[in-house]
Specification:
- This protein folds into 2 domains: 104 residues, LON domain-like (Archaeosine Trna-guanine Transglycosylase, Chain: A, domain 4); 76 residues.
- By secondary structure, it is α+β, with helices and mostly antiparallel strands.
- The chain is 33% helix and 32% strand.
- Strands 1, 2, 3, 4, 5, 6 and 7 form a 7-stranded mixed beta sheet that branches.
- It contains 5 helices and 7 strands; from the N terminus they run ββαβββββαααα.
Length: 190
């Protein structure tokens, strides 16, 4: 699976991410993908870290995405809209292409007990509303995992904290950590 490494960018499941693809190797990657299902992994580069070959290191967890729409510009660049499908574990593999490739494995997120989930859901919704009042109309059946991801995306978190939250497969731990970060960083910087 092709990987598109970017610094401090995270593709969350259920999100749509617009991307401007201008580097020749990644333009080639998009060209190659348009003849197939159009899926790639958005890999988050680890700040100030390189792999054995001197390339930017990427987190062991990435966002699997599918190109929902693309626009080829006259000069060969692309505008794409990448739809987040899932978090996946990554293992880099040799590539015969000018871009990097990874083997992926799905991440099974641990669930939260229904009694605990109800209380956590209310706390996450309150935190979201305090940061973004337009979330008042979120669907009632939106899974807790998506609510927590929305909260994480609405906070200005240091890259290291964002990386930890993005990679956490235990939903209870991710939710509790997101709520703790919300308490540390009140909306409006108060």
């Amino acid at each position: 699976m092709p990987v598109f490494p970017l610094p401090n960018v995270f593709l969350f499941p259920g999100c749509v991410m617009p991307l401007h693809v201008f580097e020749p190797r990644y333009r080639q990657m998009i060209e190659d993908l348009l003849d197939r299902p159009g899926r790639l992994v958005l890999g988050t580069q680890i700040e100030d870290a390189c792999d054995a070959e001197g390339r930017p290191a990427i987190l062991p967890v990435g966002g699997l995405g599918e190109i929902g729409r693309h626009e080829r510009l006259p000069d060969g660049r692309f505008l794409i809209w990448l739809i987040g499908l899932a978090r996946v574990r990554l293992e880099e593999v040799p590539s015969e292409h000018p871009y990097r490739q990874v083997r992926i494995a799905p991440i099974q997120e641990s669930d939260v007990a229904s009694v605990e989930s109800f209380a956590l859901r209310a706390r996450v919704q309150q935190a979201l509303l305090s940061r973004c009042p337009e979330f008042l109309n979120l669907p009632e059946n939106l899974p807790l995992t998506h609510l927590v991801d929305l909260l994480v995306q609405k906070m200005q978190l240091p890259p290291s904290v964002m990386q930890e939250l993005f990679c956490e497969a235990d939903l209870l731990k991710r939710t509790e950590r997101a709520l703790a970060e919300h308490d540390l960083r009140p909306p409006g910087g108060a």
